[in-house]
Write a structure and sequence with these properties.
By secondary structure, the chain is mainly alpha-helical. 53% of the residues lie in helices and 0% in strands. The chain is built from two helices and no strands. It has helices at residues 22-31, 36-56.
């Protein structure tokens, strides 16, 4: 359905505009003059930081 639900279908919002797809990542990469690979790597790093912060709040 999307990158955020875990189903593995990364290109289909399934009718929910808030779901994140690879098209969103590609748009973000292009908007920032970055490759999709670099964008994904930056997102992974940022999400790892956020994950640690969220785990602290548990």
């Amino acid at each position: 359905m999307c990158l955020n639900c875990g189903c593995g279908d990364y290109d289909d919002r399934r009718g929910e505009d808030a779901n994140i797809t690879m098209a969103d990542v590609e748009q973000a990469a292009e908007a920032n003059g970055m490759s999709v690979l670099d964008t994904v790597q930056e997102m992974i790093g940022s999400l790892q930081v956020q994950l640690k912060e969220l785990q602290k709040k548990k």
